[in-house]
Design a protein that fits this description.
Glutamine Phosphoribosylpyrophosphate, subunit 1, domain 1, alpha+beta, 260 residues, eight-stranded antiparallel sheet, single chain, 13 strands
Length: 260
């Protein structure tokens, strides 16, 4: 057993102990470990006259590689709410599945839906429980939105890695392309937008994010892959069809070509 003087004691650090006894080690002493985990970006959500629109691109990346082209980052939580995720794909999808299960269990036991505020609180607890993994680089940052049957309006929440939740009054964006997408929405958003205008704005925001951020995927016409876009209103969750999105992106592309 090696002995150390008080000033040379490596303490509880095992990598430091190996170095003090003359052994080389590649173990990191600080920071995060790059495990090549696929990450998901970019998602947006905005309020409009009838409720909430949530949208997310389909690309997952692992470093500078595209690991998945058709990932679904916007997922229905229950009839009147949805979750959009950015961050480490594996923990994010596990969190969403558990969240869906908890909401379904509550509905079956109580015979009614959990309030939208209660759903936001429950998701906050789950994000907080992921903090140890987040400190190792597997961050999950969701957006939660839905139609509040008590207030008769759409509502949105943003989260941080510690589980802090913040209600947004107009829109929210997350992921590596959030700056570009959020700027597009900020300029054009109006509280009482029609469904058609709000869908066009969400599609435009993801287009601009994909144009400036390599981790955000744009519409893939060759493979027929378009962003996941859904509306949540008093009638519940409804996903926008790919044919509808294809027409909107054709219009955006034509407008961009006319500028050059």
């Amino acid at each position: 057993m090696p002995f150390f003087t008080p000033g040379d004691d490596p303490g509880s650090s095992f990598p430091e102990l190996l170095r003090r006894v003359g052994l080389n080690t590649t173990l990191p002493t600080s920071g995060t470990i790059d495990l090549g985990v696929p990450h998901a970006t970019t998602c947006v959500a905005l309020r409009y006259a009838d409720g909430v629109i949530m949208a997310g691109d389909r690309r997952a990346t692992s470093g500078n590689l595209i690991s998945h082209r058709s990932m679904e980052k916007v997922v229905q939580a229950d009839k009147f709410s949805g979750v959009a995720i950015a961050g480490a794909a594996g923990p994010a999808m596990e969190m969403i599945k558990l969240f869906q299960l908890q909401l379904e269990h509550y509905e079956k036991v109580e015979g009614t839906f959990l309030s939208l505020e209660g759903k936001a609180n429950q998701l906050s607890t789950m994000v907080r429980s992921n903090l140890p993994a987040a400190m190792q680089g597997m961050v999950v940052v969701p957006i939660f939105g839905g139609f509040d049957l008590l207030r008769v309006s759409g509502r949105l929440w943003n989260y941080d890695v510690t589980g802090g939740r913040y209600e947004e009054q107009e829109f929210v964006a997350t992921g590596s392309g959030s700056l570009h997408a959020g700027t597009v929405i900020k300029i054009a958003h109006r509280p009482q937008m029609t469904r058609d205008d709000a869908l066009n704005l969400a599609c435009r925001a993801l287009w601009e994010a994909a144009d400036a951020d390599s981790a955000t995927g744009g519409p893939d016409i060759l493979r027929g892959i378009y962003p996941v876009v859904a509306t949540i209103t008093a009638q519940g969750w409804q996903r926008v069809a790919d044919d509808d999105l294809a027409a909107r992106y054709t219009t955006i592309a034509a407008e961009m070509r006319s500028r050059t």
